[in-house]
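Researcher: Structure for this, please.
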Amino acid sequence: MRRPLLGSRVRWGLMVLAVLSGLSLSFPAGQVAGPQQARVVTEDLRRPEVPPWIHRATRQVLVLGHAGSESLMEKILWPASDAVLAVGDFWSTAGAWQQHATIVVPSTEDELRALLAEDGELGRTAAVTDPEGRVVINPEVFGTLSPRGRQVVLTHEITHVAARQLTSVVTPFWLGEGLADYVAYRRSAVRDRSIAKELADEVRAGRLPAQLPARRDFRAENPRQAQAYQEAWLAARFIVERAGEDALIRVYRKMSAGTDINVVFRAELGLTEQGFVAHWREYVEGHLR
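Model: Predicted structure, token format:
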């Protein structure tokens, strides 16, 4: 899921793109990766044109990069560690998660594209979470973010890492992105109108979203991509404010297992899908007007 440029600056970016072939980059929770372990996990990343890998690690995070990337790796290490703890706090009732993240920092765009087998637009993508649960950083974009922006990106990404055991091909896109943004902004003191600036501008102009965003709305070519993410965030938060965080996790679990959306909404929220959309639209208007 790629994040758009919002106004004149990048807030964050992500997109599930591809598996980093052959990597096995996870360690048990509480275990700090040492030189030998880092050597093992980088073995499959070796290519003739790629410089040797170096690493930084805490009990929660392993960050892999190259010489010359040390400053950015340090900027990632501790916010990512905090993100793992924040996600673990939210995800504690959802099931087993090792509470550890691996983050890869390529040196160049060519290396980034090679890792992701990606030919598309990456100029607005700050980070990528692959289906195996690894986070790949786009240094050119991530490096422009403020400390708060980096924290939001990493917490969002690591929420996807934690949720991957439940996530499936039938998980609604709005729900996956909304959950990740909910956790990323869960403890934020930033005003709703600042987080959802583009959507707030539309709401104040009298234009409310008619329905929940579809998968296509999150594509980079959509001029309303930013609003799609903001709509998803507020949909997830509406669920929490109506029924609690455990209900959001249950909704995610049930929909990812293929349960009909009306069955899930009736059981967890006492609403039909149509009723949910109507209440969500009122919620968006009430918080952004």
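Researcher: Any notable elements?
Model: Residues 212 and 277 are 7 Å apart (CA to CA). The domain at 5-163 is CATH 3.30.2010.30 (Zincin-like).
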